[in-house]
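input
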Amino acid sequence: MSSDPLSSDPPPPGLRESATFDRSTIHEIQRAARTGIYRIRGWGAKRPLPHFDDLVVLGASMSRYPLEGYRERCGTDVVLGTRHARNPIHLDIPVTIAGMSFGALSAQAKEALGRGASAVGTSTTTGDGGMTAEERAHSRTLVYQLLPSRYGMNPDDLRRADAIEVVLGQGAKPGGGGMLLGQKISPRVAEMRTLPPDIDQRSASRHPDWTGPDDLAIKIVELREITDWRLPVFVKIGATRTYYDTLLAVKAGADVVVLDGMQGGTGATQEVFIEHVGIPTLAALRQAVEALNELEMHRKVQLIVSGGIRGGADVAKALAMGADACSIGTAALIALGDNSPELDAEYRKIGSAAGYYDDLQDGRDPAGISTQDDRLAQRLDPVVGGRRLANYLRVMNMEAQTIARACGKSHVHNLEPEDLAALTVEAAAMAGIPLAGTDWIPGAGGTAPKSNHEGARNGPQ
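output
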C-alpha cells in the first residue's frame, strides 16, 4: 500500500463522506489519473464479504452429548488421493499450506513453510516456478504445482513430489495469469524459470495444451503415467462457476479438488481482479459439495477449500459444510512474521504500515518473506519461522478439535451441516445453512416451515 488515505486528521464536524466516492475511491481515481497504470498488489479481497464468521456452531447441550476434551479422543487425520493414486498422502491435520512460489517468496520463506508443515505432519505446495532444494529437503509431504506457465517444470522434480496439483484457477484472479515483476527475477529465479533476469514475467491465464475437460483428462493420464500412477492428482479451481467446474474436474479424473475462494490471496495481480472477480469461499464451498454429491463422489474425491482461512473455527465450519481439508496461504505468511507490528517503522519507511502492507510484488518486504533481496531475505530465520508456523498450525488444529468435541464428534470429519446455523440471510443463502433460530434456508424452495433436520438436508451433506 503506497499510502493510507484514511490516516489523515478527522474532517471538520458536519461533513459527510460519500459511500460511493469515499476517500479510498477518490485516492485510487486520482492515482490512476496521475500514473495511467492499473493498481497491482498482493493479498486478497479487502472488502467485507460473507464468510465463516457469519456461521455459528451448535454445540451439545441436552439433545447432543459432548466429548470430554482431556479424556476422549477426537481425530484430525485425513487421507488425500484415494480415488486412483497408488500412494495417497496421509496428513495428521486437516490444514495444508497452499502453493506460493519461490520467486514470489524468498528461499528462506519456502524453507520455513516446509519446516513448519512437516513438524505437524501436513503438506506444503511448490507454487509456480519449480521446486527448490530447500523446500524438498524440509517438506515431509510436498505437492508439485503444474501451472499454465510451465515455468520451472521439471519431470524429475515431478517424480520427486508426493502429489501433483494442476492449477486451473486461483481465487484472487480466476481467469487471469500470474505476475512476477522484474525486481524479483533474481539470477536464481531466472535460471529456474528459464527467463532473463530483471524483466517482468507474465504467466498465461490458461494451459497451452488443453482447452477443456477432455484435454485435461488426457493430461491427467499423462501425469499418472510419468509418475507410475503413484501420486495423487489435484485439480485447483478458482471460485466462479464452481458447481460446473467441480463436476468437470471430477469427470476429468481428479483425485482431489482444491477450491480457492475470492478471499484467497496472491503474490501480485490487478486489484480490479482481486476485488471484483470470483465469488466468496462460503458460497463456492456449498456448490462444490453439491457437485460431488451429484456425482456420488463426496468423500471419494476429496475437497480442499482455501481463501480466507484464519483459525480453527474456520476449519471446523468448512469441514462441517463438507470439505475434507483446508489450505492456508496468507495466514501462513502472517505466522512467519508478515505485517508484524514489530516492523511497523520499517513498513512506514516504504509508505505502508503494519497490518496494511500488501505490496508483495515490489520485493521490499521488511520481513524478508516476499522478496528476492538477499539482505532482506536474511532477516527471516527459516528455523524460527518454521517453529512459529508449526505453533500456529497446532493451535488451529486444537481449535477445530475443541469445536468438534463440543458437538459430540470423535473425529473432525464427523462434523456436519446440522451442526451449523447462519447469522445473516446472505450467509444462510450462500452456505445452505438455516438462519439461526429458524428452519429457513433462503432460496431452498418452498415456504412451508421445516424441522431443523430437514432444513439441514437442503445444505451440503
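quick obs: The mean pLDDT is 92.
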